[in-house]
Amino acid sequence: MGKDRANKGTQQTRMDQYTVQNAGASLQRDPPATLEKGAEPTGVQILAAIESSSQAKQTQIVAIAVDVNLLRADLSVVEERSVATEEKVTCMQSDVDILKASVATPLEAQTRKLEERVEDAEGRARRCNLRVVGFSEGVEGANVEAFLEDWVRKSLPAAPLCWGSGGPGWAFEWGPQQSGEPVNPPLRC
């Protein structure tokens, strides 16, 4: 504590010495009209120069204080704006989360249903395809249908009975009859 007071006293003494030196230098640079050339300034003249320098410094300090206060006011405005902006962003984020939940969840469910329907349709299409195995690659030639008709005629002796002049016919499945007839599907050749 005593050390701080000593430092403050030393600093004040240095400032006073600096002010007196500046006033003396100022008087030598710009001597008043009453000071003759080469003459030493009197104590009154030095005090007047110190007073003038002190007033100039005081004016500068006041101007700096005004500028600092203006900067503080600007900073408080910026701070208020940033707080308001942060609040708006927080509200918007919560709104986006709510909208995302209300839109994304039904869309995800609908997408899932559509994917299941596509998979089901693909599975049904695969199940309806005929799969013929055991042939060498490229045996069928350019006309696969003619090759299969020829192969079926050779492999199944009863098959020609079902074929008309135009080739093999189609087999249709019929659902259960209303009159209680058997559910066996008729085949057409």
From TrEMBL:
Q: Where is this region: Disordered?
A: 1-40
Composition bias type Polar residues, residue spans? 8-25
Task: Name the source's superkingdom.
Answer: Eukaryota
Name of the protein? Uncharacterized protein
Q: Which organism is it from?
A: Pleurodeles waltl (Iberian ribbed newt)
Give the source lineage, highest ranks first: Eukaryota, Metazoa, Chordata, Craniata, Vertebrata
